Amino acid sequence: MSKNEFIKKAHEQIEYTQEQLDELAKCAKDPIYFISNYCWIQNQELGKMKFKLRPYQKRIITALHKNQHVMILAGRQCGKSESTSAYAYWFSIFNDDKNILIASNKQKGASDLMNRIRFMYESTPDFLRPGTLFYNRGSIEFDNGSKIWSEATTTDTGRGRSVALFLCDELAHVKRNIQEAMWASVQPTISSGKLSCVIMSTPNGDSDLFANLWRAANAETNGFKAVEVSIKEVPGRDQKWQDKMIEQLGEPMFRQEFLAEFLSSDPLLVKSTTLINLKGEVPTMIDKGFSFWRPIDPNKTYVIGVDVAEGVKQDFSTIQVVELETLTQVAEFRNNMINENQLYHGIKWIIQKLLSHEDPRTHRKPQVYWSFENNSAGSSIGTLYYQDDKFPEAELISGKAERTGMRTSNRVKVEACRHMKNLVEKTKGGLTLNSKMLIFELKNYVAAGASYAAKKGCTDDLIAALLIVIRVIKQLSEYEPEIFEKLYHSEGEFYDETTNDFSEPIPFLIS
Fold first, then answer.
1. Exposure b/e, 342-378, CB count within 10 A at least 16 = b
2. Helix (H, G, I), strand (E, B) or coil at 415
3. Residues spanned by CATH 3.40.50.300 within the chain?
4. Is 464 exposed, middle or buried (0-12, 13-18, 19+ CB in 10 A)?
5. Architecture of 18-228 per CATH?
6. C-alpha atoms less than 13 angstroms from C-alpha of 448 in its C-beta half-sphere
7. Are 357 and 296 in contact (CB under 8 A)?
8. C-alpha angle with apex 202: 200 to 207, nearest 5 degrees?
């Protein structure tokens, strides 16, 4: 161990004051309190300064503290490395006998993270930090039995080692063959619950391991908590700064490196230029698992589409509610922990909620149409419906020559997808989508053979329910000229239904 006056010796005896004991207890309990009060960083312009956590950095640290597995998507120079390094430091000194592994795409990056931790340690008062048994550029071993070490990410990273916390930095910039091999090595340990894992990166393409893991984290299908940092949250990133960076880097690279967007060349169903402008809104209300964005109007017509999951803890059962007159998404349901019977009660609940609204002057109630995909597991919804003599007054729309619900063939799905594309891309009178998760699915919904499907690691269950809505609207359009106009009138050229051509997407995609 090299000599350093700022290093505390192992097993050094300290007499604590009551105030110090109180501080020790506060710091051990709350990493944000410890980092905000006792961690120092090196600022390129201001030099040594106390770590003043920004709101999004607190959000990152809170996610790390409350979740075993976390993924962080953030652009360059936003302070994500300081945040995660500080948490790793806190974790090591307030937990005995824990091994913390820090891996980055290159040794330089790994060493940089260790340097941050070393700087924090050397600035921490003695009464808070443990003594050191070993202390160098690549590793620190404390006398509480905990150890931190750093290394470049390789195919053997994490293999055969007892690690409590694995911090993987800039995974997207590791060579793809190494990404896959490393993940194959550590993933079983992560799945077993024996390893806490933090993966953070800026994007580097749209089809690597990080991109797939991020999409799955966003879809809540891989057990990782997704944390995203927006450029709007970072001080100094105003339009003038952005224009300057775009001039230096070019817009595609700027969008990847600082907006943290995944570059994509996949043939998307909906044009990238449209998807970029879809942002979504925070629900105004959540009730019985349904997210609501708009109040219910008794003078409107509502269309409900249902997609039934194949099993509990597998795909998501989803319900979409759209106001027909304005083609606005009003409500949404998404759950992979319920069975068909529970979903059926959810369908009845949302219909009853819609019908519970009445115009006080005319006593009019909303008109409700609904349907469901009856392929496979969905057929049970039809059975429950036939046996139910207390179903609310809503009209079930079924496919032609079908008993109940709508069967989805490849041809029918493609046709519904094209109608959905038309309505989403229209700038006036088209679909208004409010769900961020639905928009996320659309941003990862691509051509798959002669049809469309979610990219690897993504879901498309919300889209499936929306396609049922589109098919209901299509059937209603056969009798209502105004609905026909909404569905078929396009502001520009539309695809020939017999082809599988796509417009050329721009080379970037918001994550």
1. ebbebbbbbbebbbeeeeeeeeebbbbbbbbbbbebb
2. helix
3. 18-228
4. buried
5. 3-Layer(aba) Sandwich (3.40)
6. 12
7. yes
8. 100
Token pair for residue 126? 């003695």
* 3 state SS of 421: helix
**Terminal Cα-to-Cα distance of the chain (whole angstroms):** 45
Rounded Cα distance between 439 and 423, Å, is: 14
Nearest-angstrom CA–CA distance, 126 and 428: 65
Q: Across the chain, which distance is largest between two alpha carbons, in Å?
A: 86
Identify whether the C-beta of residue 268 lies closer than 8 Å to the C-beta of residue 334: no
Single out the residue of 410, 354, 404 nearest to residue 384, CA to CA. 404
Q: Quick: pLDDT tens for 397-425.
A: 998 767 799 999 999 999 999 999 999 99
> How many angstroms separate the CA atoms of 68 and 264, rounded?
30
Assess contact for 148 and 114: CB atoms under 8 A. yes
Q: Bridge partners of 226?
A: 71
Q: What is the pLDDT of residues 316-360, one digit of tens each?
A: 999 999 999 999 999 999 999 999 999 999 999 999 999 999 999
Amino acid found at 186? V
User: Which pairing describes strands 99-104 and 132-135: parallel, antiparallel, or unpaired?
Assistant: unpaired
> Does pTM surpass 0.90?
no
Nearest-angstrom CA–CA distance, 122 and 4:
9
- Taking alpha carbons only, the member of 487, 443, 477 closest to residue 462 is 443
Show Cβ contacts of residue 179 under 8 Å, excluding neighbours closer than 6 positions: 153, 171, 208, 209, 210
Every domain of the chain with CATH number 3.30.420.240 lies at 272-488
CATH architecture of 272-488: 2-Layer Sandwich (3.30)
Q: How many CB atoms lie within 10 A of CB 197?
A: 22
Which residues make beta-bridge pairs with 197? 69, 166
**Residue 101 CB neighbours (<10 A):** 24
